[in-house]
Amino acid sequence: xxxxxxxxxxxxxxxxxxxxxxxxxxxxxxxxxxxxxxxxxxxxxxxxxxxxxxxxxxxxxxxxxxxxxxxxxxxxxxxxxxxxxxxxxxxxxxxxxxxxxxxxxxxxxxxxxxxxxxxxxxxxxxxxxxxxxxxxxxxxxxxxxxxxxxxxxxxxxxxxxxxxxxxxxxxxxxxxxxxxxxxxxxxxxxxxxxxxxxxxxxxxxxxxxxxxxxxxxxxxxxxxxxxxxxxxxxxxxxxxxxxxxxxxxxxxxxxxxxxxxxxxxxxxxxxxxx
Amino acid sequence: xxxxxxxxxxxxxxxxxxxxxxxxxxxxxxxxxxxxxxxxxxxxxxxxxxxxxxxxxxxxxxxxxxxxxxxxxxxxxxxxxxxxxxxxxxxxxxxxxxxxxxxxxxxxxxxxxxxxxxxxxxxxxxxxxxxxxxxxxxxxxxxxxxxxxxxxxxxxxxxxxxxxxxxxxxxxxxxxxxxxxxxxxxxxxxxxxxxxxxxxxxxxxxxxxxxxxxxxxxxxxxxxxxxxxxxxxxxxxxxxxxxxxxxxxxxxxxxxxxxxxxxxxxxxxxxxxx
Lengths: 274, 274
Fold this sequence. Notes:
Radius of gyration of chain A: 24 Å
Strand content of chain A: 5-15%
Distance between the termini of chain A: 48 Å
Shape of chain A: elongated
Oligomer: homodimer
């Protein structure tokens, strides 16, 4: 029996990452959409594109529904070949380049995009160096060199510091360190001593006690560490510290890593490096 | 004096990440483009959008060049407000939704996208769990539980294993471990013993001797470890191992983390989780 929901193809001569993000954003606007998504990256030869056309046509036959295809193929010949598929093709270059060319007042070229390629090796090296920095300065592991951090995330154990630092490093080459807040800090009501001289780089993470409890339970079930009371106590003390020292902070409970990263960069005034 | 190259704004009610990627891809097609890029994320109230309109108009005045604006605002009222800016506005929803609605044969809604929000908390937790997995199984740190890995990257020291594993975890919730190949393995001409039972999950990374030399020099200048001869020897031995054991591998020298990740997932047959 035909699968009446149909197939959505994402076709790229590179990774297809940009196009996947775009499609994901666009389909949020279709509540009822139940299309199977197929990503075909690295289609950089006519032979590979011809194979993709056969796959698209076969899916259309099997589904009994015209496939929808998003494409970011750059080369004219490739795009023409893809157009022979029996499908509705959305070509992002064709969609934007002519009017963008008009808006910029300059012609466009037709070579393969490098937006997710290694491009400038200096940029690539900066990202890898930032990841190594985040790993070296994870969880307060090291003090020497902490002054090189673009920012230092602080918060209680399991509030999301490490993934956020790694994301900032990986995507934006931001050198992000993180430092745990512990019982000792709370008892004294003070910031950890080593952080005092980096006040302007500090940013706090907080989280709801309920979610923290659930995260910690997975790690150490039934422990004091994971108990709702302990989670509530630590979070309240951490927020008191942030407020008392005028450290900006954000609640990570219902926010994705991407949103955290963008908001933190914006509030700390760290620019996005690429 | 007016800055004749002009400004390119990226306007979003969420992070703006998708739009940034799209713009980055599109501008690769304009070699001569020298527009300053300004990203304004989280514009989710009329007050914030009105402020953005003023900023756009001011930039146009100062540059003496009509600003170009990419927008992924979802709500009708917000989009209408943005259109009052004195600029060339590219609205990705307006661009795609009507014809996409036609292609899908269903209406579209008008609520704020969640493509980079926390969305399904289960997915978010899987990404964070995968990052923790990658950290726990970095550089052969742990054997117990290695069988849970979706894939295991192997290669010589500094061939790019760690950033690739972290990227796979962060973006695709893939549980990626990595394991170093050392002198001992090469002398014996064998795979590290603990890996033998996970043969089907192994994937090799290699790199040019010249680039490896430069990377290692930064870490330990003038060392044997970093010497061109040592780098050449290790890489040749690693590639012999990959070939001898029919382990798929990829050269990371001129490939970005994104490209590595996508190609590895495709070749190992690991699906992209979101």
